[in-house]
Amino acid sequence: MRNAASWTWRAGPHRLQLDQYFRKNYKGAFRSRGVLVRNADAAHSSVRSRRGNHSWKRLLFQLALADFAAFCPSKDSQPATIDNTDYTVTCEKSYISPIPINVLGNATPEDCARHCTSETTCVAIIWDQGNCWQFDSAPTGPISATGAIAMKPGVKTVPPTCQDTLQQCEADKQQALSDKQASDLSLAECEKRYTDALGPHHNCAKDNEIVTASNGKRYSARCKRGTGTGSVVISPMKSYIARQGCIDDCSRTTSCTAVQYSAALRQCHRYSNIGINYGSNTHYDAYLAI
């Protein structure tokens, strides 16, 4: 039997009349959020003096029956899923051995199941009138036990809707990776064909080579040269696959008088002044407007 002083009210289909009875006869002995008996001895004495044949234990037993009736509508073995964990539930049964551990009081059958789920060592648990009895090794039995509920946890399951969503996400991920791989191959092939088509016009052939922009503006090449003292860069840096794109960009920019271009890095730096005494640079070629 439960400890009366620790009994906490839980709403249930069979308890409305009991709740009304408690509130009528034990004013000041309860708190909001349900019924809580503060003094079991005083409550028991009050029951005897007010109702005579109504014992305190009988009232608590009726509440335990309400828990049992809500969880075990029949006495046959039945499956139950509690917080995504499957349980084998057998009503009116207990186990013979080993000796179980009383792990929880003032509990519903669902509370016992949740506790068992949270304990990695729990292989079975018994609910008996508000008490949870845990087994950490395989129990023998079961045996008949009036008012008790035997529960064994199974495999934790993923709700079907979540499982479906997970599978779809995995399929979408694989498809996206496949699409990216195909796109990368297409891009590499396209860039190679473009670079091959440019031929000798892709890189600087020799110093003082004349390169003409699409609008007719001309530039003089300085192969493998960097910027000199006093260079003024125009932001932002541009990116072009071919040298011609960089030259054309500068020709359309009023303040641009020179560029530095790297075919390997695909970087195009524009300058309003490229300075003087520019030295060598293994990555870039310089082109000055003339």
Which range best describes the helical content: under 10%, 10-25%, 25-40%, 40-55%, 55-70% or over 70%?
A: 25-40%
Fraction in beta strands:
25-35%
CATH topology of the largest domain: Hepatocyte Growth Factor
The tally of domains stands at 3
Side-by-side strand order of the widest sheet? 1-2-6-4-5-3
Summarize the biggest pleated sheet.
Answer: 6 strands, antiparallel
Beginning-to-end CA distance, first to last residue? 103 Å
Number of strands: 12
Uncertain spans, ≥5 residues at pLDDT below 50?
1-53
Q: Which CATH architecture of the largest domain?
A: 3-Layer(bba) Sandwich
Provide the succession of SSEs. Answer: HHHEEEHEEEHEEEHEEE
Give the C-level CATH assignment of the largest domain. Alpha Beta
Rg, rounded, reads 42 Å
State mean pLDDT (0 to 100 scale).
Answer: 76
The global form is rod-shaped
Classification by helices and strands: alpha+beta
Name the CATH homologous superfamily of the largest domain: Hepatocyte Growth Factor
Fold and architecture overview:
The protein has 290 residues and is of the alpha+beta class. It has three domains: 4-69, no CATH class; 78-156, Hepatocyte Growth Factor (3-Layer(bba) Sandwich); 201-289, 3-Layer(bba) Sandwich (Hepatocyte Growth Factor). It contains six helices and twelve strands. A six-stranded antiparallel β-sheet has the order 1-2-6-4-5-3, covered by helices on one side. It is rod-shaped, with a radius of gyration of 42 Å.
